[in-house]
Write a structure and sequence with these properties.
about 180 residues; Rossmann fold; 6 strands; globular
Length: about 180
């Protein structure tokens, strides 16, 4: 077993910040789940490259603008930087479910973009996709990532969905981080 540190890819809503069926539409509505910011910083400081890959169909639906989305991501980045960490990259799909794009999860376009940026293939370079929905995990599986379900966000419902692939389950991003830091120290 290789001890090479995997690339970490995180979904956003429901993994890093609280999710809402009414969408996270404003900077004030974007609130981190306790422990998530410190977890991302800890992974970063330990040498993991941490990416975000997030569907943001609220842009296509007109609930918020790209400018508002960028402000949410700037807030998220600043909170992680305040804890001494950094993101390797943040990728989002602004399209709606009927736009037939290649980036909206469960399609793997955002993950493929990360592979291209790094010049790697996740079938041979270790990567972990952490999400709270079936489509997060399906996107990761499509690109050869190990997949992890967190029980925050939609995770408690997702864990009972029929999936024909193996995934690990953690209560939240902090629990995943503790295990990962221990495993790859």
């Amino acid at each position: 077993m290789s001890n090479e540190k995997p690339i970490i890819i995180l979904d956003r809503d429901g993994v890093i910040n609280y999710d809402s069926d009414q969408y996270i539409k404003t900077l004030d509505e974007w609130q981190p789940i306790p422990g998530s910011i410190k977890s991302i910083a800890a992974l970063s400081k330990a040498g993991f490259q941490v990416y975000v890959a997030t569907n943001q169909s609220g842009v296509a639906r007109g609930y918020y603008t790209i400018d508002t989305l960028n402000k949410m991501h700037a807030k998220m980045q600043q909170l992680v930087e305040d804890e001494g960490g950094t993101f390797a990259g943040i990728h989002y799909c602004p399209h709606g479910p009927d736009d037939n794009c290649s980036c909206r999860k469960p399609k793997a376009g955002m993950i493929e973009t990360i592979e291209q940026e790094l010049g790697v293939n996740f079938n041979t370079t270790p990567a972990i996709m952490v999400g709270d929905s079936k489509r997060d995990l399906e996107a990761g599986i499509a690109r050869g990532c190990k997949v992890v379900l967190v029980l925050t966000g939609k995770g408690r419902d997702t864990q009972y969905k029929n999936m024909d692939f193996h995934f690990n389950v953690f209560t939240d991003l902090a629990a995943f981080t503790l295990e990962t830091l221990f495993k790859y120290q």
